[in-house]
Design brief:
The chain has helices spanning 18-29, 46-52, 66-75, 99-127, 149-170, 187-191, 202-214, 223-240, and strands spanning 9-13, 34-39, 56-60, 81-84, 131-136, 174-179, 218-219. Strands 3-2-1-4-5-6-7 form a seven-stranded parallel β-sheet, sandwiched between helices. It is globular. Helix content is 47%, strand content 14%. The protein has one domain (9-241): NAD(P)-binding Rossmann-like Domain (Rossmann fold), CATH 3.40.50.720. The chain is of the alpha/beta class. The longest helix is centred in the middle third of the chain and has 29 residues, at 99-127. One of its GO terms (molecular function) is 1-phenylethanol dehydrogenase activity. It holds the Pfam family adh_short. InterPro entries: NAD(P)-bd_dom_sf, SDR_fam. This is (S)-1-Phenylethanol dehydrogenase. Its EC number is 1.1.1.311.
């Protein structure tokens, strides 16, 4: 199973900046017919509309508001590719006073939000004959970092959900991709103090498109991600993607 971008109809969450914007641009530059830019404020996608015209359709969307996700699934009923890019990060170690509050916030967006998106859009993709479902996880889903421990925990949970979706959606012709970027040049990375090691968001878009075209479950876009992905490859191949995963 593989997914080709040309003439596709996609929806990208958090599409107005950073990685999300780069994904929208990457899809359109490779021939996507239309991309729904799923954002909290539709006006924040005006720059994309100015550049690509009617091929970009802004749509109101908030991972913390189930009703907005359900409304988006009804409005974007022609999608064959969903890229759940939107997420949040709070700098909090396990011993920080706000660690529990940080984790609750991150779980609500990064994990419960993913579940809400999957529940709303899996039936749409199935109705449209299958397609692709891409989840932006992180290298932090595989390796925790003290200052971002609550974020890492939420992304580890999101990765676990993504693995389950891979198995469940394959019977409906839906290819699932789990993307694990390292530091990428975004506002989130800047707030986390990672500017010096951050790499371009376009690397994430390229990795997603490659994974879809070559039927890969894992995508490791940047230098840090490739290093961690290389060390993880044997386990991922034999356990996560292999026959052991079906046991």
């Amino acid at each position: 199973m593989s997914y080709q971008i040309k003439d596709s109809v996609a929806l990208v969450t958090g599409a107005n900046r950073g990685i999300g914007k780069a994904i929208v641009e990457g899809l359109l530059d490779r021939g996507a017919a239309k991309v729904y830019a799923a954002v909290r404020k539709p006006s924040s996608a005006d720059e994309l509309v100015s550049e690509y015209g009617g091929r970009v359709v802004p749509i109101e969307f908030d991972l913390e508001k189930p009703e907005s996700i359900e409304a988006a699934a009804k409005a974007a009923s022609d999608v064959t590719l969903v890229v759940n890019n939107a997420g949040v990060l709070r700098v909090a170690s396990p011993l920080a006073e706000d660690a529990v509050d940080a984790l609750k916030f991150e779980m609500n967006v990064n994990v419960y939000g993913l579940i809400r998106v999957a529940q709303a859009f899996a039936p749409v993709l199935k109705k449209n004959g299958g397609g692709g479902f891409v989840q932006l996880n992180s290298v932090a889903s595989l390796r925790s970092f003290p200052d971002f421990a609550t974020y890492a925990a939420s992304k580890a949970a999101a990765y676990s959900i993504t693995q389950a979706l891979k198995t469940m959606l394959s019977d409906d012709g839906i290819q699932v991709v789990s993307v694990h970027p390292g530091p990428i040049a975004t506002d989130m990375a800047s707030n986390a103090g990672l500017d010096e090691v951050a790499e371009p968001p376009s690397l994430v878009a390229d990795a997603i498109i490659d994974a879809l075209a070559t039927d890969k479950f894992h995508a490791f876009p940047d230098s840090m991600a490739k290093q961690i992905g290389g060390a993880y490859e044997s386990f991922a191949t034999q356990v996560i993607e292999g026959s052991t995963a079906e046991a």
